[in-house]
Amino acid sequence: MGETLESAGIRHRVVVTGGASGIGLATAKRFLDDGARVVAIDIDSEALERARDDLPGLDGVPADVSDAAQVEAAFAEVDRLMGGVDVLVANAGISVRRRFLDIEPAQWARVIGVNLTGAFLCAQAAIRRMAAQGSGVVLFTSSTNGLDGHPLYADYNASKAGINLLMKTIALEHAPWLRSNAVCPGYVLTPMQQSEYTPEMLEAVNRQIPMGRHARPDEIAALFAFLASDEAAYITGQCISIDGGETA
């Protein structure tokens, strides 16, 4: 990578939720490449095993982030594996493409549970540990869907808007010893995106993006790595869009 972990100012114990695929997997890889110790938390134990096979040095803990007891157990395992946490990337998320009037209460509860409650539970668990050492960085995967309205994703939009204000509150309550920011990707070519969109739909989206394409997961991971580093020491409480110019 051209520089050491220490010279880049990147903290060395990183937890990534939803770390077995998509943006989470790319983020875990980026931090590992930069010399960090990384624990991926994911509900999909088989995907975690594949991720560990693909990324030597990655530790994986299966857990449903919407379940408080499972989150507490997962962070107890993080303590065992790494002795604490310096950076949390609260990335776990799900979405279902459906019109507002067709969203059933169970779907609403699940999307909000994973995306927003999961972020809340993991942030609490991480910050309690960071407080003991007097330093830490908490980062969230939000979305441009949390900044503007988008049809067919009412529950997802609401969860991401909630993350943005959760992040700002955390940043205000815990400054100056802790920084918190939200990364707001636009369209990213992840397995989740490819499962919801046909190739024709993906191409139609590309025509609407000034950069002419979806983001790659590693491009989102690079922003997380920067925000976790000391080079971003004066950035906190911010929703940072990375969308190829879409919201411009």
Secondary structure layout plus pairing:
Layout: H1 5-8, E1 13-17, H2 22-33, E2 37-42, H3 45-54, E3 59-62, H4 68-82, E4 87-90, H5 105-133, E5 136-141, H6 154-174, E6 178-185, H7 191-196, H8 199-208, H9 217-228, E7 239-242
Parallel strand pairs: 1-2, 1-4, 2-3, 4-5, 5-6, 6-7
Helix pairs in contact: 2-9, 4-5, 5-6
Brief overview:
The protein contains nine helices and seven strands, in the order αβαβαβαβαβαβαααβ.
Descriptive terms for the model:
globular, about 250 residues, disordered N terminus, seven-stranded parallel sheet, 7 strands, alpha/beta, about 15% strand, single chain, Rossmann fold
Instruction: Tell me the strand order in the biggest sheet.
Output: 3-2-1-4-5-6-7
Taking Cα atoms only, what radius of gyration do you get, to the nearest Å? 17 Å
N/C terminus separation: 31 Å
Instruction: Please provide the count of β strands.
Output: 7
Query: In the CATH scheme, what's the topology name?
Result: Rossmann fold
Assigned CATH class: Alpha Beta
Helix content: 40-55%
**Total DSSP helices:** 9
Q: Which structural class fits the helix and strand makeup?
A: alpha/beta
The SSE order reads HEHEHEHEHEHEHHHE
Tell the overall outline: globular
Low-confidence stretches: 1-10
**CATH architectural designation:** 3-Layer(aba) Sandwich
Number of domains: 1
CATH homology superfamily name: NAD(P)-binding Rossmann-like Domain
